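Session log. Operator J.P. requested a structure for one protein chain; no other inputs attached. Running the standard single-chain path with token output.
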Amino acid sequence: MYLKIHNNDGRTIIAACDENLLGKIFEEKDGRCLDLKTYQSFYKGSKITEKDLINALKHFSSVNLVGEGVVKAALRLNIINDEDIKHIKNIPYVQIYTV
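Structure written below.
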């Protein structure tokens, strides 16, 4: 899995994606799309372990998670529940925003 932390105007944006998904595009017939090719640089930072991700997920302003591995880590940390998970082409993803 990959993790990239974006710091913008005092806000911390966590972007994490399963390694096997980067560089691919997943699109539903209704037009919903996970474009991990065009936006690969948003997610591709450091290659990490689940433990690294869990530590990073303890401090954020917003989170973008794509893939079974990274979503399961967020579930284990109890920052999301099953109802928060969306799917495109059976790929789980979650977005969390704090206000």
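Operator note: Residues 2-97 form a domain with the uncharacterized conserved protein from methanopyrus kandleri fold like fold (CATH 3.30.1860.10).
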